[in-house]
Amino acid sequence: MDLLIKNGTIVTAKESFVGDIAIKDGKIVCIGTDLFVDAKKVVNAFGKLVLPGAIDVHTHLAMPFGGTVSADGYLSGTRAAACGGVTTVFDYPIQRKGRGIVETVQERKDMCDPEACVDYAFHCCITDLNEGSILDEFEAAVDFGVTSFKCFLVYKKEGMMVDDGTLVRILKKAKDTGAITNIHAENPDVIDLNISQFKAEGKTSAWYHYLSRPEYVEAEADKRAVHWAKAVDAPLYIVHMADKEGLEAAVAAKREGYDIYIETCPQYLEFTCDVYKREDGRNFVCSPPMKNKESQEALWKAIMDGSIDTVATDHCPFQSYEKDWGKDDFTKIPNGCAGIENLYPYMLSKANEGKISFNRAVELCATNPAKIFGCSQKGSLTVGKDADIVIYDINKDVTISVDNMHSDYDHTIWEGIKVKGYPVQTYVRGTLVYDEGEFVGTPGFGEYVKREPKK
Ligand code: URP
Ligand code: ZN
Ligand code: ZN
């Protein structure tokens, strides 16, 4: 054996038990109690939790957006991931008018490959059907391992939005090819209307970012997406769900038996729209914005009752000077916040506090993401799967600060937040990449995850 992790409490989405895990050639080969095997390295995890590595299925690394490029590239973003217990990162390359899916993703894969510190996969955002030829490329994209396509129902002026006709064509074609459609749901016309009114009234602070895209703006688009997915009976994955009304519509459709999945993000679980009243409110500007307490409580209820399927970060940080572009005009603030290194510590901390079980945290952050997005080798501590493992100390409390993160950004919305318990080691395919606060991995070690289509 290459590695034996002994005496830890092994946590899966279903159960927790004390045991040992034996690893060879990057795979879990045996799980049991008191395993007697020779191993090159033995780690005593007594008193610690042994968890599957998290899969962050929503990040924007080196993303051109808001007049700049997001502050974490593939190296720093995946380094930070490793240090937060994330062993697979999904990025969102954006297909532009006239360009194909595979060439768009290949370009990003070439950038990522020499830099990735953990394993990585891609969704692809579709912004233009190229007179229909993009739909003909779905089979090739799926063969390439890209089995999810994202539609923005917003970002009209940025040239990223798709109309409802395009959405329906994508939903149908994705279904036919064993893929799934991811949706960013907000209504662009009402946002533009609100923005022009606020600007005319001289209302320019970050608070008006929230008021220009409040609950009803997201709810309408969530419901529209659910409506079209039901109409053509196609799988749908709603990203960064943040509002109660849209959430309830999606949950109702799931309960009717439709193939609908819901993602939310830690920032919506921790912060409310009140952050936009703060002096540093612009640092919290992301879309959709944080919502009111009622929405936050609905999200937590859905986390607890099993209606939400995944928690991912929407990691898209910008530097302070870039956020400052919008000091006197909220529309000039690049949209997006940091989170990749905080996902697992935050959700596990909530488990450690007793709000959810550790099993549920594992299900939301690792097991469900792997299942929904066709990563058969990931997301669970099971014999035969990749040895993507996090060792977690329930007694190590950390106060999050930009100074102890491993990204390239210069501030974080998570500054000062206290988490109860923290990952102490991360292994990707059996190789240690994070150890007691330090990144110990190698850029380029991360491998592309070729995902499988739904049968
Ligand atoms: O504000 C955000 N979320 N920025 C990243 C792009 C997106 O909408 O997911
Ligand atoms: Zn989005
Ligand atoms: Zn996003």
TrEMBL record:
Keywords, in A-Z order: Hydrolase, Metal-binding
Post-translational modification: Carbamylation allows a single lysine to coordinate two divalent metal cations.
Domain Amidohydrolase-related: 49-433
Gene Ontology MF terms: dihydropyrimidinase activity; metal ion binding
Gene3D superfamilies: Metal-dependent hydrolases, Urease, subunit C, domain 1
Post-translational modification N6-carboxylysine, affected residues: K150
InterPro entries for the chain: Amidohydro-rel, Hydantoinase/dihydroPyrase, Metal-dep_hydrolase_composite, Metal_Hydrolase, Metallo-dep_Hydrolases_sf
The keyword Metal-binding is annotated on this UniProt entry: yes
Requisite cofactors: Zn(2+)
Pfam families: Amidohydro_1
EC number: 3.5.2.2
Gene Ontology CC entries for this record: cytoplasm
Keyword Metal-binding found: yes
Domain of life the protein comes from: Bacteria
PANTHER family found in the cross-reference section: COLLAPSIN RESPONSE MEDIATOR PROTEIN (PTHR11647:SF1), HYDRANTOINASE/DIHYDROPYRIMIDINASE FAMILY MEMBER (PTHR11647)
Membership in a protein family: Belongs to the metallo-dependent hydrolases superfamily. Hydantoinase/dihydropyrimidinase family.
Stated name of the protein: Dihydropyrimidinase
Source organism per UniProt: Candidatus Galacturonatibacter soehngenii
Gene from which this protein is expressed: hydA
